[in-house]
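User: Is it possible to get a 3D structure for a protein together with its bound compound? The compound here is zinc ion. I've pasted both below.
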Amino acid sequence: MEQNTKAYEQVRTLTDLLNQYRHEYYNLSAPSVSDQEYDRLFDALAALEKETGIVMSNSPTQTVGYPSVSELPKTTHAIPLLSMDKVKSEEEMLSFVGDKLVLIMLKLDGLTLKLTYENGSLQEAAIRGDGYGGDIVTHNARAIKGIPLQIPHKERLVVTGEAFIRPSDFAALKETARDRNGKPYKNARNLASGSIRLLDSAECAKRRLEFRAFHVLEGFDEYPLKSDRLTILKPLGFLLCSYLKTTAPLSLKWIKVGIEQMQKLAEEQDLPIDGIVFTFNDVAYSKSCGQTNHHYKDGMAFKFEDDTYESQLQYIEWNTSRSGEIAPVAIFDTVEIDGCEVSRASLHNLSFIEKLELMPGNRIKVSKRNMIIPHVEENLDRGGFDMEKLIPHTCPCCGELTHIHETESVVEGQKRITKALHCDNPRCETRRLRQFVHFAGEKAMDIEGLSESRLEKFIGCGFLHSYMDIYRLDVHRDQIVRMEGFGEKSWQNLWDAIQRSRDTTFERYLIAMDIPMIGNNASKTLARQFHSSLDEFEEAVVSGYDFTQLPDFGETLHQNIRDWFQSEDNWFVWYELRELVRIAPPSADGPIPEVGNNPFVGKTVVVTGKVEPYNRGEINAKIEALGAHAGSSVSSKTDYLVCGENAGSKLDKARQLGIPVLSPADFFLMAAGA
Ligand SMILES: NC(=O)c1ccc[n+]([C@@H]2O[C@H](COP(=O)([O-])OP(=O)(O)OC[C@H]3O[C@@H](n4cnc5c(N)ncnc54)[C@H](O)[C@@H]3O)[C@@H](O)[C@H]2O)c1
Ligand SMILES: [Zn+2]
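Assistant: Yes, that's possible. Here is the predicted structure of the complex:
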């Protein structure tokens, strides 16, 4: 009995929650959770209903959409407009399709509209609503592209299709359009659904809605195939939802190909989709399939696999970096993603954590972005966030008080403040150790054998206070030789390596100075501009040179250089160290641009991921050899992104900015002038 009450409670709670989400989604066009999260809860409820046998009458598994609460007049749907069942794998789709002939259609991500024509003119445009009735929006029909008001066909005709907003239009509209809570719309579907209900059709026209027909609900009974009924709509003035028509039974391979092709088409044609629909082409057979309260059984939606995994946040690890920023890392229950065990993910900064309202114990959704970097996508237990309780108030390393730093940046024309936790103590041991590790590292002074553990020991013994002390380590020779793990020979090797590092390059010297964001590429650009001369570079800094004129240098990089040289300590190191090193003259035999017939001349090309068989340095050298500039980060100045295996966040950025993305194969073909 008690068991039953509990099950009943569970079913009811989940039903109520999903109904609240449906109201937000269908009526307010302002959902508070993602579609994936909604689908996950929906599946959980369906499973629970099956297991317990308890189904509420208002369950989302039994009803469609949500009853409308708008002021618009309502209509009823004589033939119910139901939802669609969904699968997430091609195998499941194959078992649904069997040996039947189907239409493979875009699943446009907008909302269903039903258009009724009598005597050749549009009588009514209505929204699906709860499947049995919905809002009448005929007043907005002329504001929607693709809806003919008059058609050369006198008999009654009822057409269903999707009203939607294109991704590119959404990108432009989201800047100004606001939902009823005054917030920007989260996606194109919500904007479409909010816009179509507007009372003022002039306002609606500004929202660039478009209609594409996917089904003839009444009329053209003489045609036995859905595809024929659709084709006949074209000369009547309708735009059609794109589809492929199969002529033979599908194999698993062709199901995959079909899905891929349709996905590609949607991308190329700038159409918003949230899946691909497979529907039996034969109308009589479709009717014989029957229906549930929720969907007709003649069609099935393939929804793109949601590759996030649920886990639970155990705690946040805080790591002091050499810049003093204390970087948060999520430690969560291990999940297996693509055969790898994952239990930690960077949380980037305090703003990221704040946005997710993350607290230890919360259930979270984790993904591997671009298949490689673990990422916390979603917090399933929001509501208990408390920044004060969450962050360490003292540096985990030196114990000094921590501070929250706020930096301002401009993203897509909007000011954004990012909060990060910092240890401001310049003597913080971890910060110092990380700085020394960077200084001795391969890309900087490249001192072989000066490992992190050795540096830790030397700092601990008080041998190293500044970088210059490395070049005076022989003062402590006797002590070092007697240290555990050392001897005459290993000391000598280390000392030789230290001496060798004094012959260095402009680029290495600059990287060693650790000016934020000055790495391989930026230092190369500076070397080229200032002829590998520290004097020339220094002169530029002093005389207020504008670094943003250099390729791939933005305002931040410019400011970083300026800020770095503001510090007296930094100037001191800059001068002192110069006395100890010899900078190689600029190499005259740099790569000779194979300029000629390739489209990259004078362009900025950025690489992300691995481009076999080259490492990053080699592929950048290739780019430079083409007469192009090898950029390190994607910005509006980037002309191409070459995307190798295991691409990183640069790919997202490039897509956001609409920068052409090339596969390594494309890149080499174009470079060859093909
Ligand atoms: N985030 C939230 O809070 C929230 C709440 C409710 C629903 N949702 C989302 O909405 C989904 C349920 O919505 P639904 O019931 O409208 O189902 P659906 O969107 O999953 O599928 C049915 C709809 O697909 C559309 N469609 C597009 N192209 C089509 C084509 N070629 N043929 C047939 N239909 C086509 C039609 O409008 C049809 O009504 C959920 O799975 C979830 O993703 C989200
Ligand atoms: Zn510290």
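The radius of gyration is 31 Å. Confidence is low (pLDDT under 50) at residues 589-594.
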